[in-house]
Write a structure and sequence with these properties.
Layout lengths: L12 H17 L7 E4 L6 E3 L3 H6 L6 H4 L7 H18 L7 E3 L1 H8 L5 E5 L5 H8 L6 E4 L3 H8 L7 E5 L8 H15 L4 E8 L5 H10 L5 E7 L11 E7 L5 H16 L8 E6 L2
Parallel strand pairs: 1-4, 1-6, 4-5, 6-7
Antiparallel strand pairs: 2-3, 7-9, 8-9, 8-10
Helix pairs in contact: 1-4, 1-5, 1-10, 7-8, 8-9
Length: 285
C-alpha cells in the first residue's frame, strides 16, 4: 500500500491551480440542461482538516488557499472558488469566517451536481477510501469504488450521458507513474474521445516532464492544452517547483480565461527564481 496522504498537501498552490480549472470545466457543463458525470480516478478523502497533524506538518496551505483567503478583491472565477471553500467550512463548523477545512475535488464537484448529474469516484488507499465513503454516504448520485484508479478508469468511460469531466490526479509516488498515467489516459480517451479530461502533474527537476509531453504528442490524443504554474525555483532540491495541468477537449475560451487566472495566481503566489507561468497547446485539432 502506498504511503501518500493528500492531507499533507491539502490547500497548497497546486490544489488552487487544479481546483479553479476543475470549477471552470464543470461550470461549462452546467450551461446545458443535459446531465453530466464527474469521474475521479484518485479521489482521496473528499475533504481535509487543515488543523490535522498531516496538514500542520508543513502547512502547505499557506502557499495556496491561505494566501487567497483574506483577499478583499479577487477575479470572478477565484471568487466562485473561494465561495466553495467557504461553503465547506460553513458545512463543517457553522461559520465561513475561519479557514479550517479544505474541500477535495470530489467535494467541489459534488456541490455543483444537479438532480440528474452523477459522480463516480475511485480511491485505492485503505485509509482514504473509508473516509471518502463517509463524506458522501447519504447521496445516491455518488458511486465510490475502493480500487486502483488506473485499472478502473478505462471501464468507467464513456458514461451513460456522454457528457462529463474526468479528473486524473495521482500522487506520482511510483517511479513509472508518468508512464502509467499516460497509458491510462490513452486507454480512456480511445474509449471516449469526446470527454473532457483534466490531469494534474508535478513540476520538479527530477520529474520527466519533457518525456511525458513527448509521449502525449505521440499518443494520438487531440486537443491537448497544457497549463503550468511555476511557484518555486526549480533548482531547489526536494521542493515542488510548480503545478502542471493537461486539459483535453477544453471548452471554447477556456485557454484564454484560464491563462489569465494562472498569471494572476503567479503574481500572488510565486517566489523569486520561479519559472514563468505558461498556457499553451501541446496538440491542437
Amino acid at each position: 500500500m502506498l504511503s501518500y496522504r493528500h492531507g499533507f498537501h491539502a490547500g497548497n498552490f497546486a490544489d488552487v491551480h487544479k481546483h479553479v480549472a476543475l470549477l471552470l470545466l464543470l461550470e461549462h457543463l452546467l450551461q446545458k440542461p443535459a446531465p453530466f458525470y464527474f469521474i475521479d480516478s484518485h479521489a482521496g478523502a473528499g475533504r481535509y482538516d487543515l488543523h490535522s497533524t498531516f496538514a500542520r506538518k508543513h502547512c502547505e496551505y499557506d502557499t495556496g488557499i491561505g494566501r487567497l483567503w483574506p483577499l478583499p478583491q479577487v477575479p470572478d472565477a477565484i471568487g466562485r472558488y473561494l465561495d466553495l471553500v467557504r461553503g465547506c467550512n460553513r458545512q463543517q463548523t457553522g461559520t465561513e469566517d475561519v479557514l479550517r477545512f479544505y474541500p477535495g475535488s470530489p467535494w467541489i464537484a459534488h456541490r455543483l451536481l444537479r438532480a440528474d448529474d452523477r459522480m463516480v469516484l475511485a480511491e485505492l488507499h485503505n485509509t482514504e477510501a473509508p473516509l471518502l465513503k463517509q463524506v458522501f454516504r447519504s447521496d445516491g448520485r455518488v458511486a465510490i469504488h475502493h480500487r486502483d484508479g488506473y485499472e478502473a478508469l478505462p471501464g468507467l468511460v464513456p458514461p451513460p450521458s456522454r457528457r462529463g469531466v474526468v479528473l486524473i490526479d495521482p500522487s506520482y509516488e511510483l517511479r513509472d507513474e508518468f508512464i502509467q498515467v499516460t497509458q491510462c489516459l490513452e486507454r480512456a480517451w480511445r474509449r471516449w474521445a469526446a470527454g473532457i479530461y483534466l490531469l494534474w502533474y508535478p513540476l520538479h527537476r527530477r520529474q520527466p516532464t519533457l518525456a511525458f509531453h513527448r509521449a502525449l504528442r505521440r499518443s494520438g490524443i487531440r486537443r491537448i492544452l497544457v497549463s503550468e504554474l511555476g511557484i518555486n525555483d526549480s533548482r531547489l532540491p526536494n521542493r515542488l517547483a510548480g503545478s502542471g495541468l493537461v486539459i483535453i477537449n477544453p471548452p471554447w475560451h477556456f485557454e484564454t480565461d484560464f491563462a489569465g487566472i494562472t498569471l494572476w495566481l503567479e503574481k500572488l503566489l510565486a517566489t523569486p527564481g520561479h519559472t514563468a507561468a505558461d498556457t499553451r497547446w501541446l496538440v491542437a485539432e
